[in-house]
């Protein structure tokens, strides 16, 4: 495999040298951009071809020049502060092409993607977006699985049904998810609490891997996941899309329907309605079924936009609901049983296929509602007001010995209200953000909740400025946040049992206050026409969550017993990211080199000397610790097109190193080194079929050797290789299109485990999976 890879890379660069000498890629694109209303030229707009790292900007007279371009079709995008994004397909054939583009300022109406993109996007941080093909190949998967298409994004799994995104080694509350412009607020403190989001609601899935606390407040130490809607088609009364996805592993079926349009009731009103459903049974490894791993989902959303003379009013609502089984083999009855299961490495029981979901399981619903108003005073100044409401209802069930299994062991109701006000003028933004959050444990479970009831109040203010110079851009930002935390619940007093050795409970009440300053400083500098450098340093912080402070009990979803520390302090992190983007003819390269120091880093460490026996069984113990930590690594990806762009080779590589610098020891649950590569062959089109391609992918994950031998219940699993095959085509039907995608994942049906799976002690990962995805656009 290594010899083949070296040969392929050598061939790739040899072809690149030959192509460079060809006169085919010597075309020139010259153009100008004007304001559609004033007909005046616009300075400082960003011009890109095919979302490449190469870009140029318009001069004082609105002109731009791009040289050494190959003859073919391109998607040209034009972006700039105060103007709507402009995207159009152009074709360059020979010599020089001269074009003029007209863009509209956002003082009349502006699309959500543009507004939120400008608030979210840091020009000194690279934002990575899933391509349309990557999204098509992953339809039906959960949000976290889809994001792994991007270098540096991995998974923290709890079995086959629950995954959380990991960015540069950090996860959970250090990864902020911005869903439709609203901070996603659920019970994300749990390692087995997946984001309660339907990816079908997002037109664009993006990841920014820098510390962005200035824009979004506390918690964004690792980065930000952005889900934004695509632009509503307002040219027709009704358009839509239907998706049907079938998979063999789990015999699952997923469907999605989306309708949109405008002028249906009121000319200024545009709308979008969407609903999706999923049903899947027990998953299977290469050798055996995993019992009780079925999933059911039913979701819907609605988006309504009303254009005003100087702004826009927008309302959004969505509901996500799921029921998912937790692998039954992770729950043991005695200490000897759990140790035997870990030693065996696979379940003792034999399971068959079933769609039934029994205890242990999770039932979760998440409702999000948003009301937003944008007002534009002038082309260079605007005010955005947004109110958000979220309700997260989580119920976790387990096999019970006294009460019925239909009574949840944990029943938590979290309500969050947010209010954001952002004023933008020229290249500056000023904002106020406030949050009121209340968590209540619903009575009647017959158990002591793992986390107490709490009230969480936050208030933040920020300012960000961009300073454009002749050939570089500087960004500076500052923010202050205050958080008040009030809790009431119960804890076990293990240090003082009664005369019979019985551990007693006591009432816990506590109030904590946290506050901190965040900052950002960055630069974007084009070193040459082919090479761009972006550097950003971000200071972020995070207050300890309720489970880290006060948990003392069985976490049913993960099958672990967790013990918190009420004396934990806030995490404070400084992350420095350097991005290098290079483009030369058909070669594109991205590389992010980063380092992050986190003071008082909080982590749950497995305690192999402790196993806690409860009335519901025996479980491994995880305790929370706090130390200073250092993270650093690199994410790199490259793509090269050859044979007249019929063949595309892509490769991604990521590594992260993390250590407890107080004790000079390794931290647990840090992703091991990963390499992904693909070879895609674009087939010729004809009158019947278009967008035809075949693709073979290879993923390599190394064994995690950077761990402390006596700090875990089992050694990290070995390295593994995975192969997958993809094929896609599109069938035009009059003005509509039927897209078909076929895939075989884990092509060789490999039996393997992943270090980042918290159930790796008891079971293996998924075996071969065959999928068929059909999308009909009308």
Describe the 3D structure:
The chain is mainly β and 778 residues long. The chain folds into 2 domains: 1-105, Sandwich (Immunoglobulin-like), CATH 2.60.40; 182-777, TonB-dependent receptor, beta-barrel domain (Maltoporin, Chain A), CATH 2.40.170.20. It has a 22-stranded antiparallel barrel. Strands 8-13-14-11-12 form a 5-stranded mixed sheet, with helices on one face. It has a 4-stranded antiparallel sheet with strand order 3-2-5-6, with no helix packed on it.
Brief sketch in words of this structure:
It contains seven helices and 39 strands. It has a 22-stranded antiparallel barrel. Strands 8-13-14-11-12 form a five-stranded mixed beta sheet, with helices on one face. Strands 3-2-5-6 form a four-stranded antiparallel beta sheet, with no helix packed on it.
Report mean pLDDT, rounded to a whole number.
Answer: 86
Major sheet attributes: 22 strands, antiparallel, barrel
Q: How large, in whole angstroms, is the Cα Rg? A: 26 Å
Number of domains: 2
What spatial form do the alpha-carbon principal axes imply? Answer: globular
Which percent range fits the helix content?
under 10%
What is the CATH-assigned architecture of the largest domain?
A: Beta Barrel
Terminal residue distance: 44 Å
Number of strands: 39
GO cellular component, one term: cell outer membrane
Membrane topology: Multi-pass membrane protein
Pfam families: CarbopepD_reg_2, Plug, TonB_dep_Rec_b-barrel
Domain TonB-dependent receptor plug: 128-224
